[in-house]
Structure formats: structure tokens, C-alpha cells
Design brief:
mainly alpha, Four Helix Bundle (Hemerythrin (Met), subunit A), DinB/YfiT-like, DinB family protein
Length: about 170
């Protein structure tokens, strides 16, 4: 049985998105709690803060809230919390688990909607426009995740010299 063109497109998009999601987690593998919380760049974000941002401001926002219309997800954006900040008593492992949970829930939203699905919710406080469809949102999230994975590559190399992609 052959797959439909849309299911093939979804598989391709999810393949690239999953690859970049793994990149985010894998580049941080082996860092201790102190290094995950240490700001390395002048902008002062931390690796664990970036993963927290990806979990909430990217995966939860775009998929569960905007395209899923999940009331719990939508309600989580009622206040303007800074997702880049992780409470000191919250272990990095919990943030990584949250990221994995949000990506799994995002994948369910993607699987249960067509790529032409329009947004179900958009926050009143944003002055930009929502994406036209789920396809555009997936592409946006791939780009954002890949960009942040690159940020983490640079930070990891500054911390201990480890490189994710080594070109010989």
C-alpha cells in the first residue's frame, strides 16, 4: 500500500524535526548540572534555559496551543512567564523530560491534523499574524529548533570543546 503525498510530506517534515530535536538533547549529553546552568555568552541564557524555551515557547505554543487548541496549553500562556528562566530547584533532567513530553504531544497534534489545518487559537497580545497552516508552523519550528541547536553547538564547544558535527 503506498502512502498519500500528504503522509509522505508529514513523514519528511517530522523526520527533519525529530533529527533537530535529537540534536538539541544529544549536544548536551554528558554536561553536569552546573554546566547546564552556566551562561556562556554575554546574553546570559543557559543551555537548560534554552531547552525549557523550546519545550514551552516552541513545542507547546505552536502545536498544542495554536494548532491543537488544547485548553491547558492555551491557559499556560495567560501569563507572561519567561520560559528561558528555570528555577534553581528544578533539575535539568526534569526540563529535558518536559521537552521530550512536549515533543511527543506535538507529534500527536501533527499526526491528528492535516497539513492544511488552520490555527485554532492565537494570542491577543501578539502583534504578528498566525501562520496560514500547520505546514508553515512545522517549517517554522524546524528552523527555530535547528537555529537553537546551532547555538547549543557553539556553547558546548566553549564549555568543553565537544563538537556535535565534526567535519574532517
Amino acid at each position: 500500500m503506498s502512502s498519500s503525498p500528504e503522509s509522505s510530506e508529514v513523514e519528511t517534515l517530522l523526520g527533519y524535526l525529530s533529527w533537530k530535536r535529537r540534536h538539541v538533547i544529544d549536544i548536551l549529553d554528558g554536561l553536569d548540572e552546573a554546566d547546564l546552568r552556566r551562561p556562556v555568552l554575554p546574553s546570559a541564557w543557559t543551555p537548560v534555559g534554552l531547552v525549557h524555551h523550546l519545550a514551552l515557547d516552541v513545542e507547546r505554543f505552536w502545536f498544542r496551543a495554536v494548532f491543537g487548541g488544547d485548553p491547558e496549553a492555551v491557559a499556560s500562556f495567560a501569563t507572561s512567564a519567561d520560559a528561558w528562566q528555570v528555577p534553581g530547584d528544578r533539575p535539568a533532567s526534569e526540563v529535558f523530560d518536559l521537552y521530550r513530553e512536549e515533543t511527543a504531544r506535538a507529534d500527536k497534534v501533527i499526526a491528528s491534523n492535516g497539513l492544511d489545518q488552520t490555527p485554532r487559537w492565537w494570542p491577543d497580545h501578539r502583534d504578528d499574524r498566525p501562520p496560514r497552516d500547520l505546514r508553515a508552523a512545522i517549517l517554522h519550528v524546524i528552523v527555530e529548533t535547528a537555529t537553537h541547536a546551532g547555538h547549543l553547538d557553539a556553547v558546548r564547544e566553549l564549555i568543553d570543546g565537544r563538537q556535535f558535527l565534526v567535519l574532517d
